[in-house]
């Protein structure tokens, strides 16, 4: 009986219920463009074939987004969050040391690795503000 009343209500008020919901591109305030178009637009701007304003209109990408990506020479926009405590080369060397310990069948616990990093940072005279006494794993 309720279904009939709802049906009559929809007919009476001329309400059409959508059967297939189509999600709009991206949540509000988020990226509503394809990353491929972003790459093409940035290349066109850097080559000088399009201005930033024209590329923004042609590729439907916000002007400020394009401007930020064009000015980003070091690809800093590709990294997220806080910078790591160790650089890539330092991490690779730590991994090599750990692999040698595995080959020698020397058991290592997680706190052993933490103390190795602490000793390394102390020896390099680097102070990592995020760690308590340069010991990783403990957030200040």
UniProtKB/TrEMBL annotation:
Primary location class: nucleus
A GO CC term attached to the entry: nucleus
Residue ranges constituting the HTH psq-type domain according to the UniProt record: 38-71
InterPro entries assigned: Homeodomain-like_sf, HTH_Psq
Subcellular location as annotated: Nucleus
Top-level taxon: Eukaryota
Molecular function as annotated in GO: DNA binding
Matches recorded under Pfam families: HTH_psq
Protein name: HTH psq-type domain-containing protein
Organism: Rhamnusium bicolor
